[in-house]
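HOLO CASE FILE
Compound: 1-deoxynojirimycin
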Amino acid sequence: MENTPWWKQRVIYQIYPMSFKDSNGDGVGDLRGIIEKLDYIRDLGAGAIWLSPVYDSPMEDNGYDISDYYSINPLFGTMRDMDELISEAHRRDLKIIMDLVLNHTSNQHEWFRKSVEDIEPYNDFYIWKPPINGKKPNNWNGFFGGDVWEYVPARGEYYLHLFGKGQPDLNYRNPLLLDEIKKMLKFWLDKGVDGFRCDVINILYKESFENGRFGLPRGLEHYRSTIGNHRILQYLQETVFRPYHAFTVGESVLVTPEEANNYVAGEERELDQIFYFDHLCSNQIVVKWFRKKFVPAVFQKQIVNWMNAVDWNANSLESHDQPRSVSCFGNDGRYLSSSAKMLGMLLLSLRGTPYLYQGEEIGMTNFPFRIPEDVRDLEALNALRIAKKIGIPAHVRQKMIWSVSRDNARTPVQWDSSHNAGFSQNAPWIPVNPNYDTVNINNQIKEEDSVLNFYKRMIALRNTDEVLRLGDFQLSSCGEIFDFRRSLSGSTYRILLNFTEKKQQKSNVEGIILISTLGDHKGPAGILSPYEGLIIKETVYHEKM
Ligand code: NOJ
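Model generated. Tokens follow.
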């Protein structure tokens, strides 16, 4: 299909630079480490890279607190390295998508420092409010738990930070700020980047600062997907993204399918795609730290809901913000390899763009935390502090937080079985998962039947097969077996995914097996081994006209 945009045709691979590959032995991944591994990403079959933030930053939130949009964090390298990464990626036909954090900057950003000093025009670049009767301006609370207002004696005012204290929210009522943002976007597009993954893009414009009703986080109704937010994105689309043919995928907070369509559908298209997370939260009780048992049907129904409501989704099972999928939705013990492959088949056979997170392609698992010192993430540290404050005993709060912490996905990529998993010559900034001696890329390249080689086969199939890439989605059933179809121009594929440790049987399964997670599927197509996934090309009889 000639006019199909590239982002509907390619698998996107997310790199979290701190943990991908360290080239200079300082224990932190870097741009030269990524350049070294571009062939690996191309050989996997991915067609684009989403790079988590590499801009200058004090790293309170690992780069999601930008102190200069125009320079590269020296931890990661230099602007020359970045230019080389862009051109080396393009030489291999890999697109580069930058992370774009527009809701807030770091409190170390020059704009913020000047804002604190009340210097024009920066005095109004952030959201400042005077105390009300000596107290905070309202009762909102933040995404990382706790306060959203920080008092600055020099100004006699509070600033708003919906995330960490070092991440002040920008003021999108100020047109001068928008001019700066436009300039910065053009700077990166002129460098040749192909698009942006837009961080928490549905909360830029705060409509009012009234107290919030009860809810988590409190105050959300005053800033989630406001009309002002849509106007800003329409404006950026018109003035920057569209003229540059830049791709945009939105990350958002608590988005519903209806809301997502307001961003991605229709004439006004403000974003090309939007991520959904309902399936990833399907075993959560109100907040992410409280979990119930994983029920495959509940998880699958959330996916189906998005497939049915939104024409083209950004599909993901992992990212730097989620624990490892095989530990949550598969079995990271006896069935590690089979369940990792089955989840891979799921990701790559849904309608929409698949986003694969570093290490997912070898079945990297959650980290077996043992001591509090292993925790690095700001969000988890805050949660531990709050849990302690409200009296949750140490062993209970640690168990709760360790299994869900974002650190689980941030341990170094396991390249081989050498010291530090081949990630770095020296001690990494975050501990390596001890299973690296068995779960690693080098081993899996050699093993014919590995998770990695399955991913390669599955991506190659998707890359060459229009039914898998562009076909419609139709649900057959959710449950122990997730059973759905993809169809295009008279061809139909049936996808059967066994979410259990049991052998399963399905009736009326007919056709040619295109791929099995087992490699070689023996016996009738309707019988699935534990955690097996199958794609079957159904035999369709066309009546003669
Ligand atoms: C979403 C990012 O993915 C996450 O890592 C970050 O902490 C928040 N947005 C705040 O920028």
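CASE NOTES: The CA atoms of residues 264 and 271 lie 5 Å apart. The longest helix spans residues 175-190.
CLOSED: yes
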